[in-house]
Write a structure and sequence with these properties.
The chain has about 90 residues and is an all-alpha fold. It has one helix at about 5-85.
Length: about 90
């Protein structure tokens, strides 16, 4: 290999290495941005799910109270019917 060829090879390598290093920096920056964005989405999703959980809990509580009221009404009606039956004997 001649000196000229070696110099040309070095120049080609330098021209390849410079964009490669630049691309590495850009990729690392992009990865950092994506990670930051994903963390933000995770926080938003967690808040949203916790909100849904709280809403479902409140709704279940309302339904529970409604069922309790229905049972109480049925129990009172049954007690009235049984009292009338006992009085008729």
């Amino acid at each position: 290999m001649t000196i000229e060829t070696a110099v040309l090879i070095e120049q080609v390598n330098a021209r390849i290495d410079a964009p490669e290093a630049s691309l590495r920096v850009e990729i690392r920056g992009g990865v950092a941005d994506a990670k930051h964005h994903a963390q933000g989405l995770h926080g938003e999703s967690k808040e949203y799910v916790l909100g849904l959980h709280e809403e479902a809990r409140r709704h279940a509580h309302v339904l529970n109270e409604s069922v309790r009221d229905d049972i109480r009404i049925l129990a009172e009606a049954l007690a009235t019917v049984l009292t009338r039956l006992d009085a008729g004997r």
